[in-house]
Amino acid sequence: MLVKLETQKVIACIKSLGAELCSLQLKQNGTEYIWQADPGYWGRHAPVLFPIVGQLINNQYELDGQTYQLSQHGFARDMEFEIVLQNSQKAVFRLLFNSKTLEKYPGKFELFIIYTLQDDVLSIEYKVINQDDKTIYFSIGAHPAFRCPLGAGERWEDYYLKFSAQETTVRYLLHKGLLSGECEEILQDSDTLPLTAELFRQDAIILKNLKSKSVALKSQKSDKVIQIDFARFPYLGIWSRPNGGAPFICIEPWYGVSDNRNERKIFKDKEGMQRLEMGEEFCCQYSIKIS
C-alpha cells in the first residue's frame, strides 16, 4: 500500500512494504528528489536498517550462546508494516516481532516509523520498544538515496556535500563490507566534500562523531538543495555504486555499523549496538529538507 503526504510545497510517498520512502517531490516544478530504484544500478529507494546496520562476519552473530543468521542491514526493509495512523501530513507505520523474526533475531520488539511532513521538511522518527522480558540489543539506521544529478545538463562532478561545521576527520575503511580496522583522512579543516568517481572505490564512506548536525547536497550549476539533519546520530554513511556512473547518492544516519573483520561475533559487544532494557523505548529522528 502507498501512503501519500502533502503540503503546499511538497508531496511525499511511502510504501507499507518496509515503511520505505519512495518519492519526495517539490510541487513547484515537479522535481523528484528520491532515487527511483532502477535495478540496473540499485533497486531500492530509502530502506530502514534494523536490527543491524551493515554486514556481519559470514552473516552470523552470537547471542547468549546461540548462533543466528542475519543478512546485511537486517530484515525490516523487506517486511510489511501495519499503518496505524495516516492523515495528510503524518503517517505511522508499525512492525511487531513474530515467529519468523525470532528465528533470526531473538528479541521481542515493536518498531514504529513515523513520517511527518511540514512545509518543505520531512521528518522521519524511529521508535523501538522492548516488548521482551529481557534486555534486547539492536542497531538502526536510514539509507535514503537521492537522485544526483537532479537537473538536466548537470553531471555528478558538479555536486558536493556541504557540512554544517568545519570537519577534520577520517573515513573508516571497509573490506568486503566489513570494517577493516583501517582509516584514511577525508576532511582536513573543511566543510566541503566534492563528489568524484574515486570517492566510492573502497565502498561506502563511514564517518563517526562529526561536529556537524547536518549536511547538504548542492550543485555548482543549480540552486537545488537536499539538506539532511542528523543531529545525535553517531555515524554517517555516504554511498554510491563503487564503479561510478550511478546517478544517485545515499546519505545515511546510523546508530550502528558493520562488523570489524578482526573481531569476534558477540552481538551485544558489536560496535554501535544499542542496549534496551525491558519495557524501555529508544527514539531517534532525522529530517530531509528539499528546495
TrEMBL record:
GO terms of biological process kind: carbohydrate metabolic process
An example molecular function term from Gene Ontology annotations: isomerase activity
InterPro entries the record matches: Aldose_1/G6P_1-epimerase (IPR008183), Gal_mutarotase_sf_dom (IPR011013), GH-type_carb-bd (IPR014718), LacX (IPR037481)
Pfam families cross-referenced by the UniProt entry: Aldose_epim (PF01263)
Superkingdom assignment: Bacteria
CDD domains associated with the record: Aldose_epim_lacX
The protein's name: Galactose mutarotase
Organism this protein belongs to: Propionispora vibrioides
